[in-house]
Specification:
Length: 419
């Protein structure tokens, strides 16, 4: 058996838990930098956290500079405020972009330099400033992961900084903080959390895991602990996502979603995600659609592609999601019920763009290499083509055509399938 767990040293989960922010932050010193975005700053949940920090006697500097996709201007502003106020800890209240900004700020305040100094995996030299993350969406799982996704100012592309040192020290998960998330944010971030659970569970397995592997990589592929968390996460998310989208005040559904996204975050924080995320980078760059819309739309197609390699995993996912049929159909139908577009064509992509997207996605080697079935550009194009048509079964039909000797789809037949 092979298992890895790198996670926050403290997780506090439950309604009302935001009030713990002050006492937890006070264990690290007298001054905190509180990072959020302008929308969250005006919410009652943010107020609860700020009151808790001040009631604990802390000096609080507030940065509302966070923006979607963490542009370099946001990093510069938060780091400048941090240099001026010299915090002992950073508190982040927000969605993935806020927590990722806080991670990079904690890194640069501790070790200096620019984000680009840390793009290489595991190049963070040591612990960063203590970070206390309070998510307001369910979610990216960033409160528990070693990854911060930011926008590279040189290329204007999104890029991930990955190191175990970036895992927040404390994750305080209060479902009341997520009550205000609008339906479309709830849908997209929620199906992204399901993508984390399923891609984490379906991740490639190391042939011969050893100390070098676990020390050399923040994310190590499929393992026993990530499997256990990913399955529990998939069950909670599948049971609660539609409810949370339909009624944002349903605290029980919000609780199930936040718990699912936290566990999915811990799972993929150790195993890694894969092809739905690699393809989303290209789809998102071309269409300016949200991360979760892209990963959620693509997920059933990636699952269908991987069916020959992992039929038992798909059966287990169907079981935990209480699906009477296939896991692929279940995830596809769930996406449609929460309002995801029916196909890549529906978000304005032309069929002739697919090849370029496949080639661009193939460059995300860390993600592509984590797929359970080997991939090349042709295979990525086939997945995108099925998603362009809005029909996951197209991949399996083409597979059976291949067996009958039909031309095309050579990538799907020429690859060895690792089971
Ligand atoms: Fe994601």
């Amino acid at each position: 058996m092979f298992a890895v767990l790198r996670a926050p040293s403290q997780v506090l989960f439950g309604a009302g838990m935001a009030e713990a922010a002050g006492p937890v932050a006070a264990t690290h010193g007298r001054r905190v930098l509180l990072i959020t975005d302008p929308v969250i700053a005006s919410t009652p949940g943010f107020g609860t956290v700020e009151v808790s920090l001040r009631a604990a006697g802390l000096d609080v500097a507030v940065s509302t500079d966070a923006e979607v996709d963490v542009p370099s201007a946001a990093v510069d502003a938060a780091v400048a405020l941090g240099r001026e106020t010299q915090p002992d800890a950073i508190v982040a209240v927000g969605g993935g972009s806020v927590i990722d900004l806080a991670k990079v700020t904690a890194l640069l305040l501790a070790h200096g330099g620019a984000p680009s100094d840390y793009y290489a995996v595991n190049s963070v030299p040591g612990p960063v400033l203590p970070l206390i993350a309070l998510p307001t969406t369910a979610g990216t799982g960033s409160e528990a992961t070693p990854v911060a996704v930011i926008t590279d100012p040189a290329s204007d592309m999104k890029i991930g900084v990955a190191s175990s040192h970036l895992i927040p020290r404390h994750a305080i998960c209060d479902p009341r903080l997520t009550l205000g998330a609008p339906p479309v944010v709830t849908a997209h971030s929620g199906i992204d959390a399901l993508s984390h659970a399923i891609e984490g569970y379906m991740a490639a397995e190391a042939d011969d895991p050893d100390a070098e592997l676990v020390l050399g990589r923040p994310q190590v592929g499929k393992n026993a602990i990530s499997d256990s968390l990913a399955l529990t996460a998939a069950g909670h998310i599948a049971a609660n996502l539609e409810r949370a989208v339909q009624d944002g005040d349903d605290l029980e559904a919000r609780t199930g979603m936040l718990y699912g996204s936290l566990l999915a975050g811990i799972a993929f924080g150790n195993s890694g995600v894969s092809t739905a995320h690699a393809l989303q980078f290209a789809v998102g760059a071309a269409t300016h659609t949200s991360h979760g819309l892209g990963t959620g739309l693509l997920l059933p197609y990636v699952m269908e592609f991987n069916r020959p390699a992992r039929p038992d995993d798909l059966a287990e996912l169907a079981r935990v999601m209480r699906s009477p049929g296939s896991a692929v159909d279940h995830v596809h139908a769930l996406g449609q019920r929460i309002g995801l577009p029916g196909s890549l064509a529906d978000i304005g992509i032309e069929r002739q763009e697919l090849r370029g997207m496949a080639e661009a996605s193939f460059k995300f080697k860390r993600l592509v290499d984590n797929n359970p079935r080997p991939l090349d550009e042709d295979a990525l194009e086939a997945i995108l083509d099925a998603a362009w048509h809005g029909d996951p079964a197209r991949l399996s039909r083409e597979r059976s055509d291949d067996r009958g000797g039909a031309e095309g789809m050579s990538a799907l037949t020429s690859q060895s399938v690792r089971s």
